[in-house]
Amino acid sequence: QVQLVESGGALVQPGGSLRLSCAASGFTFSTYTMNWYRQVPGKEREWVGLISASSKLKNYADSVRGRFTISRDNAKNTLYLQMNSLSPEDTAVYYCNKNPPALWGKGTLVTVSS
Q: Which long-range contacts (CB under 8 A, 24 or more apart) does 73-77 make?
């Protein structure tokens, strides 16, 4: 079965950086476009960005473009989200998922605060 396990969340100061990981299993990871999402408690889940199967295509939400970078290692079935210049508005639980989406993982909490 499809399993998505996010990790790497932490408490970080404004202006700091963090790298999240998403370990995927149960499907042929290398053939799927993958996405990052985030959700603040009480609000709808927000799309952050995507990366195509070959990594040739990447797209980002306006709110993170220029600060966040998505990458993947198909040999390791792992998706990454490099987050730089973090602000308190980036505080959320971060999730990964494929296109089309599978069952959601538990996510990883990123807190940006001084």
A: 74/29, 74/30, 77/23, 77/24, 77/25, 77/29, 77/30
Peptide bond into 100 cis (omega under 30): yes
DSSP state of 66: T
CA dihedral 5, 10, 13, 15 (to 10 degrees): -20
- Give just the sign of the alpha carbon dihedral 40, 94, 65, 111: positive
Q: CA 83, CA 80: separation in Å to the nearest integer?
A: 10
pLDDT tens digits for range 15-39: 999 999 999 999 999 999 999 999 9
Beta bridge partners of 100: none
